[in-house]
Design goal:
The chain is mainly α. The protein is built from 7 helices and no strands. It folds into 2 domains: 134 residues, no CATH class; 38 residues.
Length: 175
């Protein structure tokens, strides 16, 4: 089996698995994606992974673009298509099936309890992603400072995230 076909099969398996595990969006499984791509397969460095994530955050559209960018980087157009399809198809199918049953029980108290219980799980997974991305700046004090300042501004002010992102990018260019 050629390297590209093998890579595409691995990408399909990784994206499909993470698609089914993500609560709260792609960011919630970012640490696992990073572990697979950087640590297990050595396809990207931690810094390259963070750069791709920053690129997808800076561009318009959903943050799941990181899957397509990784696919592009590893296998070109075939990688983009594989990652995109496998990021959306498993979840879409599962959602279609589950939604039918979920709507049937819309007035039951356990349904609200499940929804309430999933909120902290989502927050925790997103916080883990933030810690993971911050680690890739540990060897650069200016970058670590930009990350810390951005986080502080996001938490303490009502600034729009795009302004924080733009300001961080401009400071990063000057450093």
């Amino acid at each position: 089996m050629s390297g590209t076909v093998e890579t595409l099969l691995y990408l399909a398996a990784i994206c499909g698995k993470l698609s089914l595990l993500s609560f709260g969006g792609a960011v919630s499984v970012l640490p696992e994606l990073q572990r697979e791509v950087v640590i297990n397969h050595h396809w990207l460095s931690a810094r390259d992974f963070s750069a791709l994530y920053a690129l997808c955050q800076a561009s318009p559209g959903p943050n799941v673009l990181i899957y397509a960018l990784i696919g592009w980087r590893l296998a070109g157009l075939a990688g983009v298509l594989t990652c995109t399809i496998m990021t959306f198809a498993p979840t879409a199918l599962l959602t279609a099936v589950a939604l039918k049953g979920w709507n049937h029980y819309q007035h039951h108290p356990w349904r609200q309890r499940i929804q309430t219980g999933l909120a902290p799980v989502t927050v925790g997974l997103i916080a883990a992603a933030a810690v993971l991305l911050s680690r890739s700046t540990a060897d650069s004090w200016p970058l670590a400072g930009i990350v810390a300042l951005s986080a502080l501004l996001a938490i303490k002010t009502r600034l729009h995230p795009l302004y924080i992102l733009l300001g961080s990018a401009l400071i990063g260019l000057l450093c």
